Amino acid sequence: MGGDYRTWKVVPCIDCGMERRVFTSRTSAGHQRWIPRCRKCAMAIIHPPAIFRCAQCGKEKRMSPADLRTKKTPFCQECRGQKSQLDTNGIHWTMNTGGYMVRRIRGHPLASKGRGQLVLQHWSIMYDQSPIGPKAIIELRHRGFSIHHKNAVRHDNRIENLELRAPGMHPSGWSIERMAILVNSIGLGRCPGH
User: Less Cβ crowding at N or C end of the chain, within 10 Å?
Assistant: First the structure.
């Protein structure tokens, strides 16, 4: 009977250099065989990582394609942690995973239902500063209207950057002004100011 051809050996990975214990076997010619890469480096060759670029700082991070597909925010962890802003009244707002600024305000008419009771800053700004008044903003929100950020930066909540949109056409169209122009052009009535 021949000797035991199987042995354990500690060898470094040829890519990352991490030492690991591998099972080696001898071929009939007497040469030792083992996989030269650790599992992590071998999987990186089979499934190469994707590059994620932070929308705020531009820093790149390597991620697995699956993690990149399920990522909910366009910001890196560092920028998300720094995304606490003071508004003009000195109130802190923090960024949620969608990139919107939120704050817990219990009992606010625009607060989400349930335990969180979060208010989105763009709705709060529209509620406080819109010329149509707070009651109209509440009614429009309940009817499914949305607020569009004109420059597509979700945490830029200046009133001049916000635009009310009718249900069903966000983000591509139907601002209040465009709806008024359409109503006036087809003769269904006269919208004031247009």
Answer: N
Contact 61, 68 (CB under 8 A): no
Q: Is the pLDDT of residue 87 over 70?
A: no
Q: What pTM, to 2 d.p., does this model score?
A: 0.50
> Which of 72, 79, 74, 73 shows the shortest CA–CA distance to 57?
79
The Cα–Cα gap between 169 and 141 comes to 15
Give the chain's mean pLDDT.
75
Residues contacting 94, CB < 8 A, separation 6+? 83, 84, 101, 102, 103
Distance of alpha carbon 35 from alpha carbon 26, whole angstroms = 13
Number of Cβ within a 10 Å radius of residue 122: 23
Average pLDDT over residues 164-170: 71
Q: Looking at 13-157, which runs of residues are DSSP E strands? A: 19-26, 32-33, 50-53, 60-63, 84-86, 92-95, 101-104, 118-120, 146-149
Q: In what order do the strands lie in the sheet with 118-120?
A: 84-86, 92-95, 101-104, 118-120
Task: Please tell me the predicted confidence (pLDDT) of residue 189.
Answer: 54
The C-alpha angle with vertex 89 and arms to 84 and 90, in degrees rounded to 5, equals 40
Q: Which of 152, 169, 170, 60 is nearest to 100 (CA)?
A: 152
The answer, yes or no, to whether residue 1 has pLDDT greater than 60, is no
